[in-house]
C-alpha cells in the first residue's frame, strides 16, 4: 500500500513538474514575444493596421466593380449582336489604346494594334499615336554669355515610347514637350557666347536633345532629334 502510494506520489510529482515546466515555457515565450514587440514591432502593428484598412477599402471597390461589370455584360448579352458594334474597337499599326474601367487603368498595358474589346458604359479609352512628330520652337530672344541678344528657333522631333505613361503621367504631353523645348533652348543658349552658338550648333543641338529626352522620360516621350 505504501509502495502504491509512493508510485502515485512520484507520478503526481512528475506530472506536476511537467505542468510547471510547460507553464514556465509558455510564460517565457509570451514574455519574449512581448519584449520583441516592444523592441521593434510597433511599426509592424501600425503597418498591419494600414494594410487591413486598405484591403477592406479595395475589397469594397472590387465588389462594386464586379457588380457593375456583371450588369454591363448582362446588357451586352441581351442586346447581342448589336452590342458588338459598341464593344469592338480597332487601332492602327501606329496606334495604341489606353483603357480605363470605372476610372482605373485596365491591367495589361495599352492595347493594339488590331482589334480590342471594351465594356460600354464602364470603359473609356484614349488612342495614342506612336509615330514621330515634329514641331517648331518659335524664335526665342536670348541674351548670350557675352551680352549679345539673338533670336534662335529650333525644330524638335519626338515620339511616344510608352502610351500608358503618356496618358496617365501628364495632361497634354504634346503641349508640355513644346513648352519644355522652348525653356531648354533658352537655358542652353544662355550659357554660350555668340561665337560658340555659331560654331557649335551640332554640339548644342545634341545637348538640347539629351536634356529634353531626360526631362520627358517620365512622360513616356522619346526626343529623337533637335535642329537649330
TrEMBL record:
Pfam families: Band_7 (PF01145). The chain crosses the membrane at residues 66-91. Residues 86-228 form the Band domain. InterPro entries: Band-7_stomatin-like, Band_7, Band_7/SPFH_dom_sf, Stomatin_HflK_fam. It is found in: Membrane. It comes from the Eukaryota. Keywords: Membrane, Transmembrane, Transmembrane helix. Signal peptide: none annotated. SUPFAM superfamilies: Band 7/SPFH domain (SSF117892). Its main location: membrane. GO terms for cellular component: plasma membrane. Belongs to the band 7/mec-2 family. PANTHER family: AT06885P-RELATED, BAND 7 PROTEIN-RELATED. This is Band 7 domain-containing protein. It comes from Rhipicephalus sanguineus (Brown dog tick).
Amino acid at each position: 500500500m505504501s509502495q502504491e502510494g509512493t508510485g502515485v506520489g512520484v507520478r503526481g510529482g512528475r506530472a506536476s513538474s511537467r505542468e510547471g515546466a510547460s507553464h514556465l515555457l509558455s510564460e517565457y515565450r509570451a514574455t519574449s514575444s512581448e519584449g520583441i514587440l516592444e523592441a521593434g514591432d510597433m511599426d509592424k502593428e501600425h503597418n498591419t493596421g494600414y494594410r487591413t484598412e486598405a484591403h477592406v477599402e479595395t475589397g469594397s471597390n472590387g465588389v462594386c466593380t464586379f457588380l457593375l461589370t456583371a450588369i454591363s455584360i448582362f446588357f451586352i448579352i441581351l442586346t447581342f449582336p448589336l452590342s458588338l458594334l459598341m464593344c469592338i474597337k480597332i487601332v492602327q499599326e501606329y496606334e495604341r489604346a489606353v483603357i480605363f474601367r470605372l476610372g482605373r487603368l485596365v491591367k495589361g498595358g495599352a492595347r493594339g494594334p488590331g482589334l480590342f474589346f471594351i465594356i460600354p458604359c464602364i470603359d473609356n479609352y484614349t488612342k495614342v499615336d506612336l509615330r514621330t512628330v515634329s514641331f517648331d520652337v518659335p524664335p526665342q530672344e536670348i541674351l548670350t554669355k557675352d551680352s549679345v541678344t539673338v533670336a534662335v528657333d529650333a525644330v524638335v522631333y519626338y515620339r511616344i515610347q510608352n502610351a500608358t505613361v503618356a496618358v496617365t503621367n501628364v495632361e497634354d504631353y504634346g503641349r508640355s514637350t513644346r513648352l519644355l523645348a522652348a525653356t531648354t533652348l533658352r537655358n542652353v543658349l544662355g550659357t554660350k557666347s555668340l561665337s560658340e552658338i555659331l560654331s557649335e550648333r551640332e554640339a548644342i543641338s545634341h545637348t538640347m536633345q539629351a536634356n529634353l529626352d531626360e526631362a520627358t522620360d517620365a512622360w513616356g516621350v522619346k526626343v529623337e532629334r533637335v535642329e537649330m
